[in-house]
Fold these 4 entries.
Entry 1:
Amino acid sequence: MFRLPLLGLAEIAWRWTFGVAAAAVLLFSIREYLATLPVTAGEMLLLRTRQPVLVLQAVARIFQVSAPRAVTAFAVLAPGLGLAWIIIASLGRAATLKTLIENFRGSYHDIRLTPLLALNCLRAATFLAATVGVVGALLVAQAASSPDDPSPGGVLLIFWTLTMLVGLAWLLLNWYLSLAAIFVVRDGASTFAALIATTDLCRSQPGSVIAAATCFGVAHTAMFVVASSAAAFPLGFADVLPGGMVLGGVLLVTLFYFAVVDFLYVGRLAAYVFMIEPPPVTPQPQSEDDILSDIPGQT
């Protein structure tokens, strides 16, 4: 993180490039979708009443008519953004791991993009499965309550418990697939060979793997707490400062948090690469007494 700061900047470059592009596409799509919403004179009358119940009825009627178009737009955007992320993430990870492995080993195998693409496809699939799992958790939680016997507390408890379990499973799988990318770049391994090598690493060095994940996880959590506290500072002046300044302050803190997190991610990758490919030990020069002790008859 400190010896190769340009590597952290490279990580920021490819991540933020995709993030900015994806945000621009989503904002443009939402703007175009809202511009095509049909609003009748009766719905405008309900909106102008400023009564919460009437306004909600008008909004529900407006979006009910255009719901199929929203579903169609999502069906086009989601696969497109997913495919773009798979390609950009594979290229970005190949570049950063190449530099890391060269730093420890001095050489690397020819980079095979196909296994990296496959690993990132699996990561995208796990994210999709996690999203479906959260929706399933919501449905299961709703089934625990009925109109005759409502239990909002039980619904909330079931939903958050199942969501936390789904999130934990997704985090573990995403970490496992991210770690496998090291073996693809280091050894030129195939997708399944990289997954097997990752399993062997976790079995042979469980303490080191857990220690690295824990240390960087604690640092990540601490940075999140610091960033949350810092973001509360401009929000405290929301009644005094213009909205643009408050939003700019929160955005600046958010970008700083993301930048530090990207540097921490590179540091964690370097820790794993160090476990797999430790730097060679430079032999220490022998003293005169050590040389004489190796000669027969010398004491």
Entry 2:
Amino acid sequence: MDQAVDRVDLPCAVGLREQDGGPVRIRSVSAAADPRYVDFEVDLQSLAGRVVTEGLPIVESADRGVLSVAGGDRRRRPSGAVGVPLAAGPRVFGVLIAFGEPPMGGAEAIGVLEPLAKAFVPFVVTALEADMAKRKAETDALTELPNRRGFDRALRRVGGGPAALVAIDIDHFKKVNDTYGHAAGDEALRLLGRLLLSALREGDVAARIGGEEFTVLLPGGDLRLAMEVAERLRVLVESRAFHAPGGERRLTISCGVSAFPYPTAHPENLVAAADAELYQAKRAGRNCVVAARPASPTAVPAGPRAKAVAAPGPPA
């Protein structure tokens, strides 16, 4: 990718598609590009998506979406771009993108990037195969969410930046398994996975970290946002049914919320703090959201079942 950066004097990225019809995700970015775009799922209507689906190079003006069409993403929105396909024979499996308006002009930039894209193909195919194996190892087979390993990697990507975390546990899940059988329990887990994905913004990470335990990572989020997200999820889960012997059944969840740098002062304590609040939510009767009380009297507005309580601090 360094060659592409040097040739067009713009930050670059590579997006890959594991299979025909599947999503296109950004797999690597150059040093000057926003690192938070790694693992970003590209909107297929955007420049990068159309390069892959149409198999043709595209130059995008500054006022059009490069990776996403809708607004609201917290990452820096690229302004203009040039994209060329990565292809092996008739199959287009990726895109090489230069972010910004090339000083040399769009047509000349395409002429520079296309030979590089062809030269990249053997290396990219190998990298794609390795990436698919890595993604499989980091994915929970039942829910298709990241597993604990995948979640840990997402957490490391946040680094020391602000972030919020929601720890989630299905209430009385053992009773679901014991009463309706493991097939019903699996259906309940899949339902929760789908609901988490449907309710989150691009860039947020929902993961199943074990058993009936899930987490939601909100990069750049704060305590207020995390409580709002957790309460929205709690209401959503309570309103949906899953299939079990004898008819449809409903779930409830308990949620614990933490955020860095406030009120959790150290990023390494983010998970432990959310787990501590989840324990308090269970003690409070389940089917509720609990977060540590901020020092400021202003408040984290709580929904009907959301609570801001003075819970024990996270372990050091």
Entry 3:
Amino acid sequence: MQNKAWFKDLMHFLRLSHEQEDTAIIHNTVENGVVFRGTNLWILIFAILIASVGLNMNSTAVVIGAMLISPLMGPITGVGYSIATYNFPLLRKSLKNFGFSASAAIITSFIYFMLTPIHAEHSEILARTSPTIYDVFIAFFGGLAGIVAISSKNKGNVIPGVAIATALMPPLCTAGYGLAMGNLAYFFGALYLFTINSVFIALSAMVVAQLLKLPKKTFLLSKEIKNKNIVIGIVILLTIVPSFFLGLGLVRKEKFNAKADQFIKKVTTWEGNYLLRNNVNAETKEIKLVYVGNEFDENTADRINDKADDMGLIDASISIEQGVKIKDYDEIIAKDADLKSLYSEYTQLQLLLLESNNKVDSLETIPKMGNALLKEIKSFFPNITGCSYSVTEMYIDSLQEGKPISLIFFNTIEEITQDEKIKIKEWLKSRLNTNNFILKF
């Protein structure tokens, strides 16, 4: 009984009906947002131009500003709401204005990108050309937040946040960019992202409208309702399936890039050679390495490939090129004194980097030393149950610099005898190959 009461209290706490707006006001809000003429139309055109400039200049702030003032969510929410309430005149109106607004956005951005002298493919544009399953989640949850806010008396500042999260405007402007540049891959990729956002915002609006039991405008037979649900299911399936495979591709690329970064760190210096530059292509699983230093032979290249295999890059194609060879160095610097200076500085930086990496590796190894010592010493001193190992600096008055010293602490069940302490110290001297340590029990 207590569990039922707890669940009942939880559902009461989560119920939306407590703050639900009057159904007539909800209907008017949705219907007014559907219309694209006068004020809404001009705001749309200005938002399109702002977003296009933001994409063109690769300005995230400008793109966000365009999303904030864009009225594109109105007809999309109207589609979901009208399907849920069987309001077919409003559905036709919503679809008509949706098509008009999307077409106006693409045409306006197409004209802008045809006229602008800057056609660089910045990150803000590229980000809208490859949608994935994650965009489906963003659109659906963003749409849920939007329709809940519309249906609530306490709307707050949810709608602007939803406009930013679901990003309806930038994909349409990117589609216009793709048309202007003749790049159909960009056009269809951006259009697909816009389709994902539109379908799942409409779906979320439909779901919430049904959960809130908003009044129906017409009556449908059970067969008609079934046919409607089938059509909706087909649309959702056709929209979501490609994004799922694109999402898997994105995950594979991210995993490859992560492994490639770790691999490149390990081969930055290799048998007297220094990595001059590298290029990673996750799409084709190719890694290009260009070294400067000693002349490479086939065995050296094979060892680098073996290192890649050990780090999980079995399917990767590793290409290795020799930039500047040491044997050619004297001839080159004889012609260019500045190059000699730059190469000297580069070598020093590489040595400093190698030294820094070695220190990092050492810091990662030190904490594990206590565990290794404990496992070894327990075999002949079972009374020892714990071990702590650390390295610090000891400063002496006569010396300006500190002297490294190891601190070893053993935890025991019973007190260790003096003879056992002597044996343990002798073992540690042999094990650590040093007398410079402090032992405590």
Entry 4:
Amino acid sequence: MTLAAALILLIFIIAFVLILGEFVHRTTAAWMGAVAMLAVGKLTGTLDWCTDGECEGNLFAAIEFNVIGLLMGMMIFAGMLEISGFFEFIAIKATKLSKGDPWMLVVYLGTFTTLISVVIDNVTAIILIAPVTIKICNKLQISAIPLLITEAILSNTGGVATLVGDPPNVMIAASTGFTFNSFIEHLTPLTVVAWVATMGYMRYYYRDWIETKPEHVEEVLLEDEWATVKDLSMMNRTLAALALTIVTFSVHEIIHLELEISAIALGGAGLAIALSLPDLPDVVERVEWPALLFFAGLFAMVGGLEGVGHLTALASWIFDTFAEDPLMLAVAVIWVSAIASAIIDNIPFAAAMIPVIHKLGELSEGDINTTPLFWALAMGCGFGGNATPIGSSANVMAVSISERGGHKITTGEWMRVGLPVMVITCVVATIFMILFYDTLYVNP
């Protein structure tokens, strides 16, 4: 390992400790790490700026602006819905449906979040459901932390089921040609079992919180949900623009619409603004800017790791160790992807692993079937992201929204829930891979 590579790794470890230890704000830690990596790369010539039109060595070229654009567009939708009173309306509706029972809130909101994550990405699901959750819990005067963590974890778990449910799945499909239906065939049965197991653990872990009976249920049940709507016209027009955006998300590949997913999200948000003409400063204030900046810094840091070869070295170790047994190779990809995704976010790790898996197939001259490895990568990235608050973009958004809503989620609290869930769901994935390797996963 060169000196530059060692320094880059040390910087990432320090930044990671600062983020998880909450010694400084995670956005500050991420950008301190990104700038330090940039300085090391520039001084050593390891991470150079673009040359001859090629930008692979540019640290900031690692920032996934497609992901950040998607998040920004959906945050604008969420801000406009909040201004119109939509979240208050849904909060009272959901509370009446559950009759204030905390466990039924977990079931209803968790299931609803999962279903959203099946048809749109899990980050969007959290952006839409988390503000509702905080409104409900504020009305009942109970902690929103168990619900927010559960929703994020279930959105990650449910997102594994479909092509559009999780950003790594979108990236895998784009690289392999796997279809929407093939994701349903290969991953949905697994996801159902993993989801049930996750709900079982949540029921056990939050058993004391579930037994807490809110004191203000009767007052909320008597409220008129329609009285909370501040601007019905804005709410309806924003929901219509959001519905159109979601439909476009789902069909844009089917109809060969040559638009990035970020362009669809931002275009939909622009349409919503044009239809309703809201007070723009009020909308801008509701965008989670610290979360967007954190993602940019994290992507840059992971780009530094990839630029000096650390992620490729990890992937090579997996293949060198397990390549003789294709089944064990797939199982290893599940677990290493899960652990790595918990540490560096599953989106950049998937981006680093996809070309490495393709390269393995080329070097083996067809001796190694890479199809099961891509399914294993989808499983590991999706389930592994549950372990830490920075393991997936949905987690980061849940934490960011929780801070703004006065229900701050600590790293320790998240990992006490998320780490066991990661282990449980990865065990389920391993069992599925072992049982159905030959009959299901060797085919696209």
